[in-house]
Amino acid sequence: MERTIRGSTANEIADSIRDLIGSGSLAPGAALPTVRGLAERLGVNRNTVAAAYQSLARAGAVASRGRGGTVVAELVRTEEEGFAAETVLRDLGSGNPDPDLLPLPVLAEVDLRTPALYGDALIDEGLRTWATAWLAEAQPRPFELSVTSGAVDALERLLVASLAPGDVVGLEDPCFLSSINVVKLGGYRPVGIPLDDEGITPAGLRAAIAAGARTIVCTPRAHNPTGISLTARRAAELRAVLAEAPHVLIIEDDHYSLLSRRPYHSVIPEEHPRWALVRSMSKFLGPDLRLALLASDPDTAAQLRTRLSPGKTWVSRILQRVAVGMLDHPDTPAALERAGAHYAERGDALRALLRERGITVRGDDGLNVWVECSADGRAVSEAMMRRGWLVRTGGGFLLEADEASPQIRLTAHTLDDAELRLLADDLQAAIADARRR
């Protein structure tokens, strides 16, 4: 392999290695020559080879393993939310809202006669009025409004607009699947921030900033997958830490917003120069609407506008008008209240049943229930499959995926009382089976 790497400059060496990776000559996991060895063979300075390796690492093409050397990066393993196709099992791993609890579309009542054209405003005026008032309740500071095609789109655009490949992003660990995917596929380096029962920990946040995090992503309530919400005390502690890091872009993903029974406690310090609050409509209006509202400081908003301009990838004004029609409909507040209460009641009922059986659960909000099994999560999942249930193992939500990690996540809000009791009994038996194995 060393004889096929060529070049006398860092760019030439990096391009040569990229060609070898692209042709399949260097497979994922293959070790590159040492910096000293390759420099001697090519007759260049070691700093030249080191710079080539660094540029490849920033692009996500290679990864450093410290004393283990530099290797070709493995393909990023990704998981997504959603129903399992063609399964005969009862699917408790989807992470979806209940379609019967989503407000009905109001297309017949929405004025779609006036077409939106190139050069028109990016945001429908009706949506701007509604969203500005709603977001100002949460962030009573000057902000600019943006609209994106969902929260994942917002996160991806925020990172692309403010970071370079190889930059460090602080993520909750465990973390929402799509956030993990966006960061890893974008070539950024995720650093995990652990959670306790009050949210991400101040010590973990400090460690992420010390590790070079230029962006922090935080879920203030109904964290996915755990259901943990920030307490007022913890949010104040985190604001104190972040006040000492004004260079860090803070992204709050308040995905559950209108359905949550917990108050919104922000980690964004007063006068912090770089911040964004993202609120998706997927959980309460439906995933297919593909809309998220984003409040941010003016500089961040200006960066976003360059990626959302007309003629490129703006969000359909038709979808925006449909969203306003649904939000302003007189039946919507009651529908949202009913949905939030249902998810809370079903989650509380399942957590109570599991605790009665000596099973540890975390969090108390959101669509899912996070279970600490004290046993191999993969073995628990397999035992549940034999009992007719499909559950999602918790290891996929970790920044370093581990299917044996002793957690599972359940999306069980469509089950009635008898089904919840059966689920709890089967899970108790499955955990016992996994421990025996």
From TrEMBL:
Transmembrane segments: none annotated. Residues 7-75 form the HTH gntR-type domain. PROSITE patterns: HTH_GNTR (PS50949). The keyword Thylakoid does not apply. Signal peptide: none annotated. SUPFAM superfamilies: PLP-dependent transferases (SSF53383), Winged helix' DNA-binding domain (SSF46785). CDD domains: AAT_like, WHTH_GntR. Keywords: Aminotransferase, DNA-binding, Pyridoxal phosphate, Transcription, Transcription regulation, Transferase. One of its GO terms (molecular function) is transaminase activity. InterPro entries: Aminotransferase_I/II_large (IPR004839), HTH_trans_reg/aminotransferase (IPR051446), PyrdxlP-dep_Trfase (IPR015424), PyrdxlP-dep_Trfase_major (IPR015421), Tscrpt_reg_HTH_GntR (IPR000524), WH-like_DNA-bd_sf (IPR036388), WH_DNA-bd_sf (IPR036390). In the C-terminal section; belongs to the class-I pyridoxal-phosphate-dependent aminotransferase family. This is Aminotransferase class I/II-fold pyridoxal phosphate-dependent enzyme. It comes from Microbacterium panaciterrae. The lineage of its organism: Bacteria, Bacillati, Actinomycetota, Actinomycetes, Micrococcales.
